[in-house]
Amino acid sequence: MARLIAAGEVVSRPLDVVRELVDNALDAGATRVEVEVDGGGLRLVRVRDNGGGIPAGSVGLAPLRHATSKLSPQARSVEGVTTLGFRGEALWAAAQAGELHVVSRPAAQVGACEVLAQGEDVQVARTSAPAGTTVTVRNLFARLPGRLRTQAPAASEVREVTALLGRYVLHHPGLHWRLSVDGEVRLTHAPSDHRGAVASVYGPLSANRVLAVSGEGVRGVVSRPELTRARRDRMHVSVNGRPVLAPPELERAVIEGFGELLPAGVAPLCVLDVTVAPEDHNPNVHPAKQVVALADLPGVAARVRAAVAAALAAHPLARALPELRPAAEPTPAPGHAAFPALTLLGVYQELYLLAQGEGDLWVVDAHAAHERALFEHLTRALGGAPPAELPEPELLHLTPEQLARLHERGPELQSWGLTLEDFGAGLARLRTLPAALAPLNVPRLHEQIVESALGDGPDPRRDVLARLACAPALKAGMLDLGRGQAVLDALAACEHPWACPHGRPTVLRLSERDLAHAFGRRGARDVPRGRDAAPSAGPGVSGS
């Protein structure tokens, strides 16, 4: 059994001690977890919980290597791990690296037990303490000067510990959490939902911009399209309650779930709890258990993608116009997903439509809106008729990368009407086009289709249609009132009207109340309506 669960050293820095002890607290069923760190964790790490505790008859075994109560003696139990910690190495490794002090009492036990362990020396005594377990590790690596000299500065380790505790808060929002650093409270969280956890870790402004995600084996929140970052450092995933480094496939699945709502090169904030059968994942592939192996990673990615897409489809995604008052906080959109009926008021700069709807002023980017309508029209028409044969096959030059993608994607392209064959010598022969695309009056039509179909995007079909929808869309100088109203009507009929295929917003909205405040008006008209009348989900958290 020891050979099966061993995965290397588990304590190489204070962060490892915190992770292992918090895992133990969660496995013990704790509803309150308090973490203290002094001197960057080298002087002291303490984790206190109100969990089940360790019975007096077993507490002396706790610091022994591979002495674990989390697996049955059968070897096959390793294949169905249901806990966060399971190797029985954490307390032993902490005792080898520092001075371990454990005080524990199950609720039904009279009196508590304490364990002092340093190296292989273990002492057990009786004491008094509340129900639960407190584990303290002092003077980490004091007996290992080589290891001590290579530790990160205290400030760096504290930053990592704070980030780790933040992840636990995000994935276990129903618990009480508290982190103290050198006697100063750095993080607190009272039981709530995922949105409340985002508020505790990233602040109420971020919490006001997340949407609930609920799908098959996927729960959590994802940010609205306007809340993005250049990095993926706020994309958090847990598997069966364990915060892990998200596999790239799952990160891509989240981004693909946004589709064209998310511009290229940015990432959303997300907190997703993924649940799989215990036998369908292996948490024993990394010493710190930060990486897990999934038996059906493509299937999990598909469920994540579908859950994110469904969450976004269920909410209105019109972005607020820039605030006219510098100190104003953006107000959430109304709590329903239907695109409103808009009445055209006028055309501005021959590109933007000014419209009225739901008591608010709407500004519509006519090009983006027309592009969205054309994109959905082409999407519906694609595959509706047999592919169009070219009068004569056309030879096109391809790069080596494009040829490699052609070999990979050829059957997929042909399934929606694009027949492209490797002709040798860096050439490809184009024989058919989708019937919906063949008559388009677009310059270099064939080249644009092939370039998009063999590009580096994950969805060649969408990339082709998005590119072809852009060229014929209305440009500045082509608008009049008649065309403007037609664009509004076409946008209202779209399935996803809130963004163009490339991720730019199609509409912005401004409430009358914002205008009244900006003009200094006070009176009967200064009441919530339109966007300002959206119901609130609670103090500091919007209901969008």
From TrEMBL:
<dbReference type="InterPro" id="IPR042121">
    <property type="entry name" value="MutL_C_regsub"/>
</dbReference>
<feature type="domain" description="MutL C-terminal dimerisation">
    <location>
        <begin position="344"/>
        <end position="480"/>
    </location>
</feature>
<feature type="domain" description="DNA mismatch repair protein S5">
    <location>
        <begin position="198"/>
        <end position="313"/>
    </location>
</feature>
<dbReference type="Pfam" id="PF02518">
    <property type="entry name" value="HATPase_c"/>
</dbReference>
<dbReference type="InterPro" id="IPR038973">
    <property type="entry name" value="MutL/Mlh/Pms-like"/>
</dbReference>
<dbReference type="InterPro" id="IPR002099">
    <property type="entry name" value="MutL/Mlh/PMS"/>
</dbReference>
<comment type="function">
    <text>This protein is involved in the repair of mismatches in DNA. It is required for dam-dependent methyl-directed DNA mismatch repair. May act as a 'molecular matchmaker', a protein that promotes the formation of a stable complex between two or more DNA-binding proteins in an ATP-dependent manner without itself being part of a final effector complex.</text>
</comment>
<keyword id="KW-0227">DNA damage</keyword>
<dbReference type="InterPro" id="IPR042120">
    <property type="entry name" value="MutL_C_dimsub"/>
</dbReference>
<protein>
    <recommendedName>
        <fullName>DNA mismatch repair protein MutL</fullName>
    </recommendedName>
</protein>
<dbReference type="InterPro" id="IPR014762">
    <property type="entry name" value="DNA_mismatch_repair_CS"/>
</dbReference>
<feature type="compositionally biased region" description="Basic and acidic residues">
    <location>
        <begin position="523"/>
        <end position="532"/>
    </location>
</feature>
<dbReference type="InterPro" id="IPR003594">
    <property type="entry name" value="HATPase_dom"/>
</dbReference>
<keyword id="KW-0234">DNA repair</keyword>
<dbReference type="InterPro" id="IPR037198">
    <property type="entry name" value="MutL_C_sf"/>
</dbReference>
<dbReference type="InterPro" id="IPR020568">
    <property type="entry name" value="Ribosomal_Su5_D2-typ_SF"/>
</dbReference>
<dbReference type="InterPro" id="IPR014790">
    <property type="entry name" value="MutL_C"/>
</dbReference>
<feature type="region of interest" description="Disordered">
    <location>
        <begin position="521"/>
        <end position="544"/>
    </location>
</feature>
<dbReference type="InterPro" id="IPR036890">
    <property type="entry name" value="HATPase_C_sf"/>
</dbReference>
<comment type="similarity">
    <text>Belongs to the DNA mismatch repair MutL/HexB family.</text>
</comment>
<dbReference type="InterPro" id="IPR014721">
    <property type="entry name" value="Ribsml_uS5_D2-typ_fold_subgr"/>
</dbReference>
<dbReference type="InterPro" id="IPR020667">
    <property type="entry name" value="DNA_mismatch_repair_MutL"/>
</dbReference>
<dbReference type="Pfam" id="PF01119">
    <property type="entry name" value="DNA_mis_repair"/>
</dbReference>
<dbReference type="Pfam" id="PF08676">
    <property type="entry name" value="MutL_C"/>
</dbReference>
<dbReference type="InterPro" id="IPR013507">
    <property type="entry name" value="DNA_mismatch_S5_2-like"/>
</dbReference>
